[in-house]
Amino acid sequence: MVTANRLNVSLDDEYAAKLARLAERAHVQEGTLARSLLSRAIDEADVDARDIVQMLDGIPGAHARLRRSLRDAEAGRTVPLEAL
């Protein structure tokens, strides 16, 4: 039996528009295409931790968002998992 795990991914406007165009040309739903593309990227990803850190470091604004999130957590500005 295969189980599926749900994962929500937010795309910026440029990538969302590109995904929509690709899905329209392929005559599939955007979610179907996104799952396929993400699965392939994961299959092809190198699991070397150095490569993962380099990839994460390449996310624009990631460090600033992380620092802001840590400040929010330290100040108690969080949402309990049960509330999600």
Summarize the structure in words.
By secondary structure, this protein is an all-alpha fold. Helices cover 61% and strands 0% of the residues. The protein is built from four helices and no strands. It has helices at residues 13-26, 30-44, 49-57, 62-74. The protein is extended, with a radius of gyration of 17 Å. The mean pLDDT is 87.
**Alpha plus pi helix count:** 4
How many beta-strand elements?
0
Our estimate of the beta-strand percent is under 5%
Give the SSE string.
HHHH
Distance between the termini: 28 Å
Mean pLDDT: 87
Rg is 17 Å
The level of helicity is 55-70%
Largest sheet: none
In terms of structural class, how would the helical and strand content be classed? mainly alpha
Shape: extended
Uncertain residue segments: none
Sequence-ordered SSE layout with sheet pairings:
Blueprint lengths: L12 H14 L3 H15 L4 H9 L4 H13 L10
Helix pairs in contact: 1-2
Brief overview:
The chain is an all-alpha fold. It has helices at residues 13-26, 30-44, 49-57, 62-74.
Can you tag this structure with a few keywords?
extended; 84 residues; mainly alpha
